Each structure stands twice: as structure tokens, then as C-alpha cells.
């Protein structure tokens, strides 16, 4: 096509004419993407109508008819008659206004709420630092250790003049973040060992790793959590007891370890055999070969699926609701047990869902960006 | 198979070296490591085991599966086979397994259909369609399934009571007691009709194979669809008519405070199914999208250049290649749906986890209860992955 334009002699006096309005600009975009045929046009019109209806209905419910706060009576009990009179035509955000501290921090002493709040910020800071590629080296390990210690000191207290808060009173968002972050911090090294074991030539170690991974992946997380809550006390010698949160944490670590091991194994398998052989030819020992040659390349390759698995575990920590641990979702569910707030579950679940959505969406966007970035050398 | 491509020089085994009792010998190191690891693992297991045995004795907890034959005494609202609280634990657990399968099988089918539809919509040229599909996928995937289940359950419980139930069509009632629909009074003739549909499908498939074999022989394409329609639809209708065409509808109606008659779908089941299907469909949509995108544009163009019709292009060229990419992740999504159905316990649908949990609370036999849950899910998981691996091997690319 370009040949034709080049070969056609320009007639004198003619100027380059702008492309017709129907070929460029917003009109062309509309024609191309929304009204490219009768079927497309019909679909656009029907969908457009439905979307406008749905959005208007939602705005009515969530903003225009919504009630944002309700008065308290003399005993401090919320008066929710106004909310009940809406009969579902408007949202009762008062439940969130009234209960948001409880949902976020559970039964932690009210005047000490700044501590779990700082803990949440520390966690977020830790995630952001870990996501930056300039920190992808050994400095990450001390950073994690220091931050996690600081988090433990803030939550428990008892040092630097902070009052001691026993673990039974922790709750809400910090529990969700603790379960997922500590879970990953321990599951990740475990998964690397298991993945290496599954690829090893030593038959006994290989069988152990295969059995572990397949057993865990074949059963739902709930059965492991039940095991942690009802069976674990039987496993330990008399008198020795581990608290419930730690037991659930161990179950989550074992569960996450098996899934992450499969992701890591995929990375190990995708390395060309020449890398292993070259390392052997250099006379490196097994651990030198693994630590200096294999893992740095293999892990880099599986970072995007690793992040996707992290997202899955962040969501899966909500399952501790079933064994009665006070995480974000449990706190939300408990907030509406109070008679005054019964029946406003939808508002609470939207609020809690938004918190999960923000965390997971950030991680998922990060993983997509990273994938594009790491694959840049493959594109031409 | 691999012998054919291995260079004959490498076929010789390396000479056997005698074991040297030294850390420098790789085999000795391997043996030491294995003994060490296996010793530690079994040591821990033995320690836990002996603690458990001791604790069970001290707490006087019975062991063994003898309780399975005792009277369960737990009421189960939904059961596919007849069940009374006076039945044994074994029967109660069987009901639980069937309830799990009921939600898993229907969930897998619906999630596949809806997920495929959304995955194709994600690739639509229409901006609105593809953005809505993308929005759906992103939002659903970023919210925990348990929260979604609680959300759906809250919405279904917020529906008006039976007296003020939604009543869109004659005989259909939607209330906080669930969905009531008219149902067919089942007779032997209907079973025969269903069986003849299956027979019709099998016969049509055999006929199609025969027709293709003939086409391979002489190059003449044969018309398959009239015979297929006759076999799949005509045969059952003929059977049904021959058996007297029974057709009695059981209409639900208000009696007192609840409905009588018809078919009921409980709010628990409806919430669980809705949550599982919408959640898994978002994951399946991504799998389908990736599968379709993995087939190069050149494949479409080459097939069209050969003169194939667009339906044939999809069926003969694109789908077989896309399926190779789709099947493995699809398998893990099916497995996830089945395992996620265990969240039923949170909203009170009585699946195997819920019933086994009640059983272990009533009998105090935690180890047996959890062993039953794990055994059931391991069996289901292994069966699904065996079937999908078989199917995957059938459609996999045959390479040299």
C-alpha cells in the first residue's frame, strides 16, 4: 500500500489532506470498538442501558439514600430505627462508621489502637520495600527480621513502657497480615527445600517430598486448620500447649509450603540443563551450585506466579474464621452479631471486601507489571 | 522410546566404582543425608504418635472406627438418599459425601460454561463487553471466597419470608427459605427416557465415527446431523410416548408458614453454589482467554486459506490446539472448586466437612473425623486428576 502512495506523482498544488473524521479520532474509535456491526451495536446499547441502570441503582443505594451515622442512646447503644426504616433502599454505613475500629483491630484495648495501626503501616512498608527491585539482595533479610521484631514488640508490648497485651485480645487486620506475612516468611524457605528435595537424586528424600506435597495439595485448607485446632493438642506431650493462633499459623505454613514448592519446582525445571552441567564442570559443590547458579535464576523466573500464589494465601487466611480466630473477616462477622446491627451484613462485607480488594489488587497489578518487565528481553 | 535418540556412545553404563568410606564419595554422602533426613522425619512422627497414644489413654478417648455403626442422632436437612437422625454415622457421612459431590459436580459444569463465556467476552472486539468481563474477573479474584459466600448467604437471608415471597412466574417462589419450583412427579418411564437420551448420544457418536471412517475411505463427506438429531431427540420422545407419556407436575403451594410440594433449593445450597460458580468462573475465564490467545493468528488464516468453514476452523484447528493449553490449569481449577466446597461449613450447608465436624464433636474422636475428611477429599482429588490426566494425554501433541 505504501508503495502506491510513494509512486503516485504528486499533482502540483495538492496538499496533504487530513484523514477523514470517520477514520481517526473519537468517532473512529467509537465505530471501531462499540458500533462495528449491527450485533455489536445492539450489544453496546443493551449493555450500556443495563450499566447505567445498575450504576444509578447503586449510587442511590450507597450514597443518596444512605445513612452515615446514627445517634446513640444513654447506654451507648446505637439507635438503628432510621436504618431499618429504609427497608433496603439505602445503605446503612453507620454500621461501618460505628464499628470500623472494632473490625480493624478487634478487641485490642481501645486506647492502645495506635499500636496495631502502626503495625499495619509497618507491614505495608515492608511489602513496598520488598517489592522494590533495588532491595532484591541479602539486605532484605535483615530488613524483614528487624521489622518483624518491631511488630512483635508493638503487638505484645511489655517493653519501652508499652502495656502488655495478651495475644487473645489481638484481632482484625493485624491478624490477617500476621498470618499471611509470617506464613510466607516461613513457608518460602520450606518450599525451596521441598522443591530441591523433589528434584534430588536421593530416592528417600524425593519420596518424602512428593508425599508431603501431594498430601497437602489433595486436601482442603479447612481440614488442616481443623487438624491444628482439635488434633494438635493431642500431638504434644501433656502440659505443653501452643496457643491457637500459632497452631493455625503452623497449618498455614505447611499448606503454603506445598503450593509454593510446586511453583519453585516449575522454576527449577525451566532452567536449561546446561546450567546444572556447567556448574558441575566448575567443580562446585551441591550447595554452591544451588545457591550461586540455580536458585538466583530459577526464582527470578517464577516471581510472577509466586506473587499470584501470595495473593491466594492472603485471601485464604480468611478461612481461620471457621476455627474461630479473630482475623479481619471474623471481626466483620462479629460486628453484626450485636442485636442493634443485625441485618446490616451487606454493608460490613462490602467494607471488609474493599480492604481485601485493595491489598490483592495492588499485588496483582504489581505482578503484572513485573511480568512484563522481566519478560522484556523475550520481546523484540 | 528415548533409546532411539540417545547417542550410542552414552549408552554404555559408567564403570562401577567401589564405595569408598569417605565424605568425598558422593554416594556415601547421599546415603548419610538420606538416613539423616528420614531418621529425623520419622523420629518426629514417632514422637507425635507416642504423645498422641499417651494423651488418648489419659483422656480416655476411644479409638477406631467402631462409632461408624452407632446411631448418629444428627439431623440433616438436605439428603439425596433417605436419611433419619436414627441412622448410623456411616450413613450420615455418606449423605455428606453426596452433598459435597452434588455441589461440586453442578458447580464444575456451571463454572465451565460461565467461565468460558466470560473468557470469550474478555477477548471481544466490543470495548464495553471486554471491559465488563475484565472488571468482573479482577474484582471477583481479589476478594476471599469465604467473604463472598457470607455475602451471598446474607443477601439470600435478607429476602422476604414465605408469605411475601417473590413470585415472578406461576409456581416459582423465592423467599428466605430458598427457591421453590414446580417439579415433575418422577416415574419409571422418565428413568427410561433419560437412559435413552444417553443411549442416543452414544449411538450418534458411534454413527459419527462410522461416517468419518467412510469419508476417510472414499473422500465423500456424509451428512451426520439428521441421524444424530433423530437418535438424541427422537429416540427418547418415542420411548416416552411408548410408555404412556406420563406428565404430572407437582406445584408448590403455601400451607401454614411454609411451602409444600414442588422442588426446593435451600438458601445454603444456593449461596454456596452461587459463590463457588461466580468465583471459579473468573479463574476459568482467564484460563480460556490464555488458551485462545495461545493459538497464533496464522493458524486461523491458514485454515481459512485451506477453504474450511469458520465452524470447522474452530473445531478442527483452533480448539484442539487451545485445549492443550487449557486442560492442565482447568484441572487445578476443578480441584480447587471441589476443595473450596468445604467452606460450606461456614454457612451451614451440610457437606462432608460439616457432618464429619459434628461427628467428631459428638464422639470426641478427632483423629478419625479428620482422617475421614482427608480421605474423602484425597479420593475426589485423585479421581479428578487421574481423569483429567487421561484426557490430557489423549489430546496432547504427539511429538517425535
TrEMBL record, chain A:
Q: InterPro entries from the xrefs?
A: AA_ABC_transptr_permease_3TM (IPR010065), ArtM/GltK/GlnP/TcyL/YhdX-like (IPR043429), MetI-like (IPR000515), MetI-like_sf (IPR035906)
**Is Chaperone set as a keyword in this record?**
no
Recorded GO molecular functions are: transmembrane transporter activity
Keyword annotations for this protein, in alphabetical order, are: Cell membrane, Membrane, Transmembrane, Transmembrane helix, Transport
Q: One Pfam family for this entry, by name?
A: BPD_transp_1
Membrane topology term reads: Multi-pass membrane protein
Q: What are the GO cellular component annotations?
A: ATP-binding cassette (ABC) transporter complex
Q: Which SUPFAM superfamilies match?
A: MetI-like
Instruction: State any GO BP term from the record.
Output: amino acid transport
TM ranges are 35-52, 117-136, 142-165, 177-196, 216-236, 248-266, 348-366
Q: What is this protein called?
A: ABC transporter permease
The scientific name of the source species is Neoroseomonas lacus
TrEMBL record, chain B:
Question: Where does the record place the ABC transmembrane type-1 domain?
Answer: 97-388
Single GO molecular function? transmembrane transporter activity
Recite the UniProt keywords alphabetically.
Amino-acid transport, Cell membrane, Membrane, Transmembrane, Transmembrane helix, Transport
Look up and give the membrane topology term.
Answer: Multi-pass membrane protein
Write down the InterPro entries for this protein, in alphabetical order: AA_ABC_transptr_permease_3TM, ArtM/GltK/GlnP/TcyL/YhdX-like, MetI-like, MetI-like_sf
Coarsely, its chief localization is membrane
Instruction: Report one GO cellular component.
Output: ATP-binding cassette (ABC) transporter complex
Indicate whether Transmembrane helix appears among the record's keywords: yes
The keyword Transport is annotated on this UniProt entry: yes
A Pfam family (short name) is BPD_transp_1
Q: Which residues cross the membrane?
A: 30-49, 103-123, 135-155, 188-207, 228-249, 269-292, 370-391
Q: Where in the cell is it found?
A: Cell inner membrane; Cell membrane
CDD domains (UniProt xref): TM_PBP2
One BP annotation, GO: amino acid transport
Entry's family note? Belongs to the binding-protein-dependent transport system permease family. HisMQ subfamily.
Name this polypeptide is given:
ABC transporter permease
Q: Which organism is it from?
A: Neoroseomonas lacus
> Upper lineage ranks?
Bacteria, Pseudomonadati, Pseudomonadota, Alphaproteobacteria, Acetobacterales
Amino acid at each position: 500500500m505504501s508503495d502506491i502512495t510513494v509512486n503516485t506523482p504528486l499533482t502540483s498544488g495538492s496538499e496533504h489532506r487530513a484523514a477523514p473524521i470517520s477514520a481517526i479520532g473519537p468517532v473512529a474509535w467509537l465505530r471501531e470498538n462499540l458500533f462495528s456491526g449491527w450485533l455489536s451495536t445492539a450489544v453496546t446499547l443493551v449493555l450500556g442501558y443495563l450499566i447505567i441502570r445498575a450504576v444509578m441503582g447503586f449510587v442511590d443505594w450507597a450514597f443518596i439514600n444512605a445513612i452515615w451515622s446514627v445517634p446513640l442512646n444513654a447506654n451507648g447503644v446505637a439507635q438503628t430505627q432510621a436504618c431499618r426504616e429504609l427497608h433496603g433502599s439505602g445503605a446503612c454505613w453507620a454500621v461501618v462508621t460505628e464499628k470500623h475500629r472494632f473490625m480493624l483491630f478487634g478487641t485490642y484495648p481501645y486506647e492502645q489502637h495506635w499500636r496495631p495501626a502502626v503495625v499495619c503501616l509497618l507491614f505495608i512498608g515492608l511489602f513496598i520495600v520488598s517489592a522494590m527491585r533495588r532491595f532484591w539482595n541479602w539486605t532484605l533479610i535483615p530488613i524483614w527480621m528487624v521489622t518483624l521484631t518491631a511488630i512483635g514488640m508493638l503487638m505484645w508490648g511489655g517493653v519501652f513502657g508499652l502495656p502488655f497485651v495478651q495475644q487473645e485480645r489481638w484481632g482484625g487486620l493485624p491478624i490477617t497480615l500476621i498470618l499471611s506475612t509470617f506464613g510466607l516468611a516461613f513457608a518460602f524457605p520450606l518450599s525451596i527445600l521441598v522443591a530441591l528435595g523433589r528434584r534430588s537424586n536421593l530416592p528417600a528424600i524425593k519420596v518424602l517430598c512428593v508425599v508431603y506435597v501431594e498430601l497437602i495439595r489433595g486436601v482442603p485448607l479447612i481440614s488442616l486448620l481443623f487438624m491444628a485446632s482439635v488434633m494438635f493438642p493431642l500431638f504434644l506431650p501433656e502440659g505443653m500447649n501452643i496457643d491457637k493462633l500459632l497452631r493455625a499459623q503452623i497449618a498455614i505454613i505447611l499448606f503454603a509450603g506445598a503450593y509454593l514448592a510446586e511453583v519453585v519446582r516449575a522454576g527449577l525445571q525451566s532452567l536449561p540443563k546446561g546450567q546444572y552441567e556447567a556448574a558441575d564442570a566448575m567443580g562446585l559443590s551441591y550447595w554452591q551450585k544451588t545457591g550461586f547458579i540455580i536458585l538466583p535464576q530459577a526464582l527470578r523466573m517464577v516471581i510472577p506466579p509466586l506473587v499470584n500464589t501470595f495473593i491466594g494465601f492472603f485471601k485464604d487466611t480468611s478461612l481461620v474464621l471457621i476455627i474461630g480466630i479473630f482475623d479481619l473477616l471474623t471481626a466483620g462477622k462479629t460486628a453484626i452479631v450485636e442485636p442493634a446491627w443485625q441485618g446490616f451484613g451487606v454493608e460490613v462485607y462490602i467494607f471488609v471486601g474493599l480492604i481485601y480488594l485493595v491489598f490483592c489488587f495492588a499485588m496483582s497489578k504489581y505482578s503484572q507489571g513485573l511480568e512484563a518487565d522481566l519478560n522484556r528481553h523475550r520481546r523484540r | 522410546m528415548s533409546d532411539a535418540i540417545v547417542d550410542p556412545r552414552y549408552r554404555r553404563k559408567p564403570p562401577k566404582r567401589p564405595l569408598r568410606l569417605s565424605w568425598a564419595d558422593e554416594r556415601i554422602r547421599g546415603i548419610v543425608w538420606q538416613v539423616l533426613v528420614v531418621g529425623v522425619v520419622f523420629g518426629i512422627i514417632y514422637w507425635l504418635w507416642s504423645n498422641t497414644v499417651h494423651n488418648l489413654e489419659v483422656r480416655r478417648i476411644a479409638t477406631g472406627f467402631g462409632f461408624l455403626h452407632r446411631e448418629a442422632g444428627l439431623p440433616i436437612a438436605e439428603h439425596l438418599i433417605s436419611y433419619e437422625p436414627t441412622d448410623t454415622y456411616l450413613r450420615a457421612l455418606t449423605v455428606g459425601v453426596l452433598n459435597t459431590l452434588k455441589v461440586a459436580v453442578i458447580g464444575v459444569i456451571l463454572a465451565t460454561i460461565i467461565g468460558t463465556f466470560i473468557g470469550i467476552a474478555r477477548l471481544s472486539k466490543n470495548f464495553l463487553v471486554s471491559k465488563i468481563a475484565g472488571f468482573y474477573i479482577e474484582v471477583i479474584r481479589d476478594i476471599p471466597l469465604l467473604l463472598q459466600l457470607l455475602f451471598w448467604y446474607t443477601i439470600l437471608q435478607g429476602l422476604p419470608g414465605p408469605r411475601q415471597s417473590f413470585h415472578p412466574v406461576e409456581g416459582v417462589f423465592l423467599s428466605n427459605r430458598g427457591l421453590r419450583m414446580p417439579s415433575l412427579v418422577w416415574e419409571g418411564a422418565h428413568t427410561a427416557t433419560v437412559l435413552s437420551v444417553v443411549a442416543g448420544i452414544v449411538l450418534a457418536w458411534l454413527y459419527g465415527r462410522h461416517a468419518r471412517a467412510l469419508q476417510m475411505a472414499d473422500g465423500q463427506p456424509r451428512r451426520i446431523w439428521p441421524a444424530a438429531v433423530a437418535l438424541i431427540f427422537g429416540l427418547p420422545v418415542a420411548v416416552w410416548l411408548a410408555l404412556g407419556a406420563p406428565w404430572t407436575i407437582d406445584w408448590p403451594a403455601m400451607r401454614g408458614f411454609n411451602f409444600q410440594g414442588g422442588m426446593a433449593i435451600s438458601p445454603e445450597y444456593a449461596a454456596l453454589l452461587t459463590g463457588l460458580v461466580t468465583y471459579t468462573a473468573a479463574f476459568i475465564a482467564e484460563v480460556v482467554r490464555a488458551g485462545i490467545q495461545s493459538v497464533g493468528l496464522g493458524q486461523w488464516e491458514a485454515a481459512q486459506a485451506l477453504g474450511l468453514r469458520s465452524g470447522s476452523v474452530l473445531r478442527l484447528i483452533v480448539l484442539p490446539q487451545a485445549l492443550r493449553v487449557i486442560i492442565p490449569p482447568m484441572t487445578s481449577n476443578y480441584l480447587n472448586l471441589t476443595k473450596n466446597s468445604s467452606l460450606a461449613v461456614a454457612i451451614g450447608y451440610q457437606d462432608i466437612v460439616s457432618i464429619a465436624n459434628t461427628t467428631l464433636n459428638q464422639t470426641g474422636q478427632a483423629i478419625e473425623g479428620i482422617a475421614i475428611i482427608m480421605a474423602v477429599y484425597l479420593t475426589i482429588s485423585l479421581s479428578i486428576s487421574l481423569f483429567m490426566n487421561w484426557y490430557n494425554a489423549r489430546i496432547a501433541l504427539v511429538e517425535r
